[in-house]
Amino acid sequence: MSNIVATHDIHISEVPFLVVDVETTGPSGADNRITEIACIVVRGGEIIEEFSSLMNPQQHIPASIARLTGISNSMVYTAPRTSTVMRRLQPLFLQPYAVFVAHNVSFDWSFVHHTFQRERMVIRELPRLCTYKLAKRLFPQRTRLNLQALASFFDIVIAERHRAHADAYATAQILVRILELLQEQAHVHTLGELLSFQHKRLEHFRKKPKSVEALQERLHSAPDAPGIYYFYDAHGNILYIGKAKSLKARISSYFLLSAHHTGKIKELVRQVRDVQWVVTGTELSALLLESKEIKRHAPQYNTLMKKYRRYPFLRLGAPMHSVESADMAFQRVDICYEIYDDGAEYFGPFSSRSSAEAILDIINRTFVLRKCADPFTPRADFSPCLYYQIRRCHAPCALLQSEEEYAQEVQAVRAFLSGERSGIVAVLKSAMQESSMRLDFEEAAILRNRMKELERIFFRQQQIASSINDNNVIIVIPTATPDKKLEVFFIRHGRLKFQRLVGKKLPIKELRQALHDVYGSTEHAPMYARKEEIDEMRIIASWIYQHRNDGLFLYMHNRTPDEGLEQLVDMLYKAFAVTHSYEPAEEYP
After folding, report:
1. Could you list the active site residues?
2. Which domains are assigned to the chain?
3. N or C: which end of the chain has fewer CB within 10 A?
């Protein structure tokens, strides 16, 4: 019976893709054996883990295969036994939502599946994804789509062909590029859509959309720059508004020969008679402008088919929709996907729900906050629940914990989410090592994933408070326009307060005034967010998170406006030195 996860509506950025390559003694997974295996884990468009090892197949390697792979009988003689290697790989295959990927997936899966069976190890019937099949549908006009040909097409260098790690690593890089194209061109966003795409009949990808001829001249003039675009029907009505890193690539993707659309998108494309666009210079500007324009015009197809990438947050506050004063004092932590104007603090965003659940589990194990979502009405004759018996709650509902004591625990959770309890990473590392020594590799893998997520969070929190309301930061982004300007964003309490394009002549006076206006006051973050602010806050927080390693940020915590101006000007000088051959003309006084 298949154990494939039924929930295929998970976003592909949350899926752990296990990209596998095997070298073997022959062509049959049932009769031959693995001599080398590699597994590259891809999630969120990044390679997050790598494993590779030779294996002693206890079977002769034919001379022809040894010449092809370079793996000889003498090389595998002292290699680890199959059981040892597969036991180390097993936790990766037990991850929730894991998908098995290979360039010829039936070949690699056959060997891996039979090997696990021979070793009598538990392994699920994982969903399988073939990069060859995906490429066949993305590039229907190309005749050569083997691993080497695809690597050359994407400018990917394979260090050592026909060795497991090199081939798996190249396949992982190809997968990342293919997933990007599928989202841009075919509007594939969920795991179910991705698995379905690889099995679509090839003739679907050879039909030329009827609307291409009418729009061809307009499509060619689209710029290769970030911005938003508007699709109009024959009567001048706006059908759809979207954003793009590259307007040319995104707009053209609707009319490509290889594009395979859902029914709603096909219906949209048939009605499009004109395309307009606004160049924004940066992706963040495009995201913010798209959100405002959709709210302003409410296009029909944005409502019908717009799919948002939702990021989970941890919410510290009273239970949702509660107005009881006791609930406000005795707060709890929950997972949510939206930011509400309810006075709660929102921490995140996290890369996936599983990551947020892991952190919530750590909070529940480490701190003692109430878990019940029922209305909170403490009284002395109340009987504490099971959480009190297992020491996960101090039963404030039965007046066994005071409001002051509970507030201290809430502050400890807040400090933890702001990165002040990073010592817990060391505790998890020690527990992971102990699990490995007990050969409990599944538990070790769970602890390892939690530790890595914490390390990512604490790395970010060293510079920025995770509570969205405390986001006080200046963002500098080079534009993709020919004039090579920089775009500056002033963020205060998670909200965009000032936005300006700057060129070689810095507007020092304007920047100084804006810094004093935005960051000069000592006011606390607003208790509530207006409805029109909520989506903007989510967009900004998610953008900062995604670009935490490559963005230009000036965090304004504990900085005066004058200190901020000096450091901002220095940051802009350095950015211009990279993007320009000249220095800003206006001197900093």
Report:
1. 162
2. 12-197 (3.30.420.10), 207-305 (3.40.1440.10), 313-461 (no CATH), 468-579 (no CATH)
3. N
